[in-house]
Structures are given as C-alpha cells and as structure tokens.
Input
Amino acid sequence: MREDVSAAGRTALRTEDINLYYGPFHALQHIDFQVYRNSITSLIGPSGCGKSTLLRCFNRLNDLVEDVRIDGRISIDDAPLETIDIIDLRRRVGMVFQRPNPFPFSVYENMVYGLAIHGMRKKGRQEIVERCLQAVGLWEDLKDKMKQPALLLPDETKQRLCIARLLTIEPEIILLDEPCSALDPIATMRVEELMIELKKDYTILIVTHNMQQAARVSDYTGFMLLGELLEFGATEQVFTSPRHEKAEQYITGRFG
Ligand SMILES: Nc1ncnc2c1ncn2[C@@H]1O[C@H](COP(=O)(O)OP(=O)(O)OP(=O)(O)O)[C@@H](O)[C@H]1O
Ligand SMILES: [Mg+2]
Output
C-alpha cells in the first residue's frame, strides 16, 4: 500500500462534478475524484451503484448507450476529454471486462489487432507481441501456441491475454471492470500480482466486488452508493477509518 500519499501529485484522470443520466434516471451524481498516475485505485460499492457507469465515462463507452446525458468535466492528463480524438482516447484508456473477451482469432491475431487498427507497420510487431506477453507472464506459455484459437485458452490465460492485447498499443490508463470475477482464487491472486507489477508503467482503475481485493491491491479506494461517490481516499484510511457511516457499514459487511 502506498505510504507516501503526498508524492501522489500527478493526476492521470480527474472528474469534476460529473452527472450522468440514463433517460430520467440520475445514475451518477456530482462525482469529483481523481486517479493518480502509477497507482491502483479501486471502486467498490453494492451492485447497481454506478461503478461500471463511472468507469465507462473514461473511454466514452457510455456514448454508445442510447438516451445518455453527461455533464461536468472529465480530464485525462489535464486535457478535457472532449478535446481528445476518440480513437486516440480508446488507445490511451484501455478497458478489460468481467468476462475475458478475446476475439475469435488466434493468439497472435489477438495480439496484433490493435497494432493493425492503429496503423503500425508489420515490421516490429513480433517484438511487441513478445514484450507484452512477457509483461503479463504468458510468453513462455504461449510462444509456441501463437496459432491456437484464443477462445480455447483457460479463463485466466484469456484474461491475461486481454490485458496483454491492451499493452501492445501503449495505454496510459487501464480500466478493469471486475476482472477477476470469472477466475478462481489462485488465478485471482496471480492477476492481482500482475496488477501490482503493471502499475510501475501504467495507471490502473479497477472495479471490484471483492473488498479484500481492493484492500490488497489498491493505493486508493472509492466507495460508491446510489450513484454518489461517498468516500474516497487512501485505501488504508478508507478501510480503517472511513468518514462516512455507510462506507463503514459496507466495509464491515453489514450490507451490500
Ligand atoms: N444502459 C442503461 N440504461 C439504463 N439504466 C442503466 C444502464 N446501465 C446501467 N443502468 C442503471 O444505472 C445504475 C448503475 O449501473 P452500473 O451498471 O453502473 O452499476 P454497478 O455498480 O456497475 O453494478 P454491478 O456491481 O452490478 O456491476 C443501475 O441502477 C443500472 O440499472
Ligand atoms: Mg458493474
């Protein structure tokens, strides 16, 4: 856990007074928070409180939902979100979902897909594939299986592959929406270790239902309830002396 909170000055992502409406439903209410560079921030809170909705604001995935309205300010690296080209944004802010979702292609094709979309020439791709699979601990395992269909891999491998696939296009921020919920406890632990390894080079924002996971991996934690971010701070503070009564009740398992 991060002790030196004061050194956390550099903000990768910031929201100021975000409100999001699904039609008439006010799903995110006055969200002010920030994600510090090279840290892991967890969002926790009961089902339906808006965690995924908030995460999807950061790569503009909510734009695809009909009848959504968002106001307030979001900035990535101090640049307003709306000034960032969408293709560039999706490269800079990558996302991993609950169910591992490799494309129905080979391992290799999964790994070069993003590179091709972003117009990287063929030369040099092999090296990137190797480096990114190394980064998620899959290279030894997969180096002779490049032509295998990715969908046939075990779940943990698939999820790691999805992370590796993101790394090829050099994101700055990685959004993970309950990335371990389809994994067994051992695989979960190994993916947690991977996250801690990755934060040296990336900024990570993770939604999790697993409070132990938030406590283990994250430097900062935000607690959401009914569309509000009720509590946000250093993980240790949020878990040991939450300011908000509801956060305390949730953390101690009294509801959720
Ligand atoms: N596309 C949508 N249209 C209308 N309402 C939506 C839509 N997506 C989510 N909601 C509603 O917005 C609220 C927040 O949903 P969201 O999925 O962000 O919650 P969550 O905290 O991620 O929940 P969970 O832990 O179950 O994944 C919920 O009340 C949900 O029903
Ligand atoms: Mg969700």
Q: What stands out?
A: Residues 1-8 have pLDDT under 50 and may be disordered. Strands lie at 11-22, 25-36, 40-44, 68-76, 79-80, 93-96, 173-177, 203-207, 220-225, 228-234. The longest helix spans residues 185-198.
